[in-house]
Amino acid sequence: MSISRILIMFTLMIIIYCGSHFYIAQRLYQWLNPLLPVINIKIYIVIFLILASSLFLGFVPLPSGIKLIIKFISAYWLGIFLYLLIFTAAADVIMLFVKLIKIIPGPIPQKILFYKGLIVVILTACTACYGLFNASQIKLVSYNIQTAKPVLQPEIKIALISDLHLGSINSEKNLIKIVRRINEIEPDIVCIAGDIFNDDFNSLRNPSKAAELLRSINSTFGVYACLGNHDGGETLNEMKHFLEQSNIKLLNDDYVIIDNRLVLIGRLDSSPIGGFGNLKRQNTAKLMDSINTELPVIVMDHNPSKINQYGKETDLIVSGHTHKGQLFPARLITRAIFDVDYGYYKKDNDSPHVIVTSGAGTWGTPMRVGTNNEVVSIIFK
């Protein structure tokens, strides 16, 4: 993509972002003004400017205490703003329809406009509260995968997670529940399919506690991980050291043979934010040529957009990345972008089984609406 096209897209996104904030600010003020006639328009504008700009202020070099406050504001505001926009737009469309079919003759009374605003605020508050609560729950999802290759008995139980986004809001608190869910499965292997971190290792509030929790994962043959697009950048070495201290084996376009029963491959993400230093993703065909594919082959590849690179020599691909959209109605977008954005998929008889998890954590805002944080249990036989 050319630089000029990137600049045009970025400018368009800024215009949409600012325009939608102006729209919400105007509608909220129209609702609040009769309720609080003494509201100071200058103070209101300043508050809204802080909320709107909090997303960008996080990239500005500021004292750590102020940056943490901005991080919290932007994270919560992102989810609240989305549903304020959706419900406000829906209410305006309904009001327009009411005017067009003349259910209410003449100008719409101020009382109706007030209740319209009240309903929007209540719906937004309820949705945000539900999203926060739902994001604190860790669901368990199960799949059974039958491979055409012989797997020595007994069957292998795999626990799959992705998108922990350690360093994001509530991520370390939810890690306790995630580890508990994994241990309930009593897995033979644990696979972490990328986005373990949230861009910057230094955003973890208590790395030693997080490492201790990850070390408490119980599995027969160990815990393995691959890097996702948020696992790169300037603190990559700190991330790798953390994983080593957590007893997690990182596979960077590398593989291990598990108990002489299967091959587990971990791929580097193709589009890391900040890069992986000297590490580069290999050509998939070349990598597969170096592997004994007479054994069952499982691939951890963070982004499911790459599943078409694998053929019948691969038995199972596990991915994350999509979050299943995380917030309704974003799944409409992920379903349009990916062949599979969530769940089980198999293109045809000569293609591998694919499982895409919605992830165990959240990105951006600590809310989930219409989706769940999950730990996946896979019976591989």
SSE order and pairing:
Blueprint: H1 3-35, H2 41-57, H3 64-100, H4 110-135, E1 138-145, E2 156-161, H5 171-185, E3 189-193, H6 207-215, E4 223-226, H7 236-245, E5 248-250, E6 254-258, E7 262-266, H8 284-289, E8 297-300, E9 316-319, H9 331-337, E10 343-345, E11 353-356, E12 373-380
Parallel strand pairs: 1-12, 2-3, 3-4, 4-5, 7-8, 8-9, 9-11
Antiparallel strand pairs: 2-12, 6-7, 10-11
Helix pairs in contact: 1-2, 1-3, 1-4, 2-3, 3-4
Explain what this protein looks like in three dimensions:
The protein has 381 residues and is α/β, with parallel strands linked by helices. The chain folds into two domains: 3-134, no CATH class; 140-380, Metallo-dependent phosphatases (Purple Acid Phosphatase, chain A, domain 2, 4-Layer Sandwich). It is built from nine helices and twelve strands. Helix 5 links the parallel strand 2 and strand 3. It starts with a helix and ends with a strand.
Question: What would you report as the Rg, rounded to the nearest angstrom?
Answer: 24 Å
Contiguous helical run count:
9
Percent of residues in β-strands? 15-25%
CATH topology of the largest domain, by name, is Purple Acid Phosphatase, chain A, domain 2
Structural class: alpha/beta
Number of domains: 2
Q: Give the CA-CA distance, first to last residue.
A: 43 Å
> What is the share of helical residues?
40-55%
Spell the H/E element sequence. HHHHEEHEHEHEEEHEEHEEE
The top-level CATH class of the largest domain is Alpha Beta
Sheet with the most strands: spatial strand order: 1-12-2-3-4-5
The general outline is elongated
- Tally the beta strands: 12
For the largest beta-sheet, the strand count, sense and barrel status come to:
6 strands, mixed
Do you know the CATH architecture of the largest domain?
Answer: 4-Layer Sandwich
Mean pLDDT: 91
CATH superfamily of the largest domain: Metallo-dependent phosphatases
Query: Regions with pLDDT < 50 over 5+ consecutive residues?
Result: none
